[in-house]
Design goal:
alpha+beta; Butyryl-CoA Dehydrogenase, subunit A, domain 2; Butyryl-CoA Dehydrogenase, subunit A, domain 3; 3 domains; 4-stranded antiparallel β-sheet
Amino acid sequence: MDFADAPEDEAFRNELREWLDTNLADFEAEESFDAEGIKKMYERRKAWQLRMAKAGWAAINWPTELGGRDATLMQNVIYSQEMAKSKAPGIYNANGVWQIGPMIIRWGTQEQKDLWLNSILYAEDHWCQGFTEPEAGSDLANLRLLAIQDGEDYVLDGQKIWCTTAHLAKWGLFLVRTDPTAIERGAKHEGITALIVDMEAPGITATPITDIVGENSFCLVTFDQARCPVKYRLGNEGEGWLVAMGTLTSERVGTAGLSITMKADLDTVVERSRSLNPGALADPDLRDRLARAYTQIELTRLLNVRALSKVLKGEKGWPEVQIAKLQWSHLAQTLAELQVDLLGPSALLARGGPDAVDKGQWSRLYSYQRYTSIGAGTTQVQKNIIADRAIKLPRK
Ligand SMILES: Cc1cc2nc3c(=O)[nH]c(=O)nc-3n(C[C@H](O)[C@H](O)[C@H](O)COP(=O)(O)OP(=O)(O)OC[C@H]3O[C@@H](n4cnc5c(N)ncnc54)[C@H](O)[C@@H]3O)c2cc1C
């Protein structure tokens, strides 16, 4: 494969790089993760997204007339690489821009597009996504949050769990069960409907759950006779599975910059360890782990390139995309462990302590990265898919 940018891609890269150079300067605040720091982080992300949106850089996959750039796959890769290289902050509505917005564009009526797309793009409101339930995670089609039509509304009863930042959201894309007989009929993928829910409606409660690092990053959302207008339905009744699958597919876009971020983080820690824990770099075991880590990062990059090359040729990115997800979660956790070991025992001191290294950010990362084997498909389920469909291992 030729790794050089085509002229139009080179122009795209240069324009983006130039824009980032000019616009990032006043956004380079250090992130901190106490309650005040998190509040500031969201304010900063909101302002950053607005600035990006005004310049057409927030939602590059959206059509140009809706504020996007109709970006190609290659431009998505370049975008991901340049964002990683420049260490640009995250945006306020990542879910909305990458997953929910494209679904509204694909399935929404004109009235729905007018109502919601600007709210997502210009970070006017925060958006969340409610798919998982206490009894429906990997087996998502088992979902049971009931929505029964009553006049102009659906009446919702049940629960969703692990909804990221639902307590901050004004709107959310939810999957609900409109045909309660479907599961008993053995047709659980049927009778699921996608609704955009006003999170401030009576009967909806988002209760934050404290996560492994002590932050309130996600919620249990309960619905008690909550009403959602039928006109907020995305697609037809019973088409929710189609809408959801489109949403989850979009989740896999934009991972090309990960190896850049990982390498930059590892370089930073190696430099930091020279002053903080100098013996570490002379330790044969740690040196061996470091060499393996850099090799694995390069392998991850090449795996992404291989998947990309296939897709550009019109083939499916299979099974590289699934393997890349596994590789990413394994590597993210391996690196987090290595980084803490390189920095020495004080790197494990938690946030808030006077001696915590870099305000405890490495010990936080060490715990936080456990999520990578759950989010976007759990490790065990991904392995099952690869064993079943790629290696074609016999079933019992
Ligand atoms: C940081 C984070 C943010 C999230 N944000 C959101 C959000 O915004 N909205 C939302 O809807 N959800 C969100 N989720 C939830 C996420 O989608 C689910 O956690 C995920 O789908 C797994 O479901 P579960 O937690 O019910 O685990 P389960 O599916 O119950 O799995 C439990 C364990 O059993 C294993 N397992 C399950 N099935 C099989 C099988 N067939 N064979 C072998 N092993 C199996 C799994 O691998 C796992 O180890 C988030 C999760 C995390 C960690």
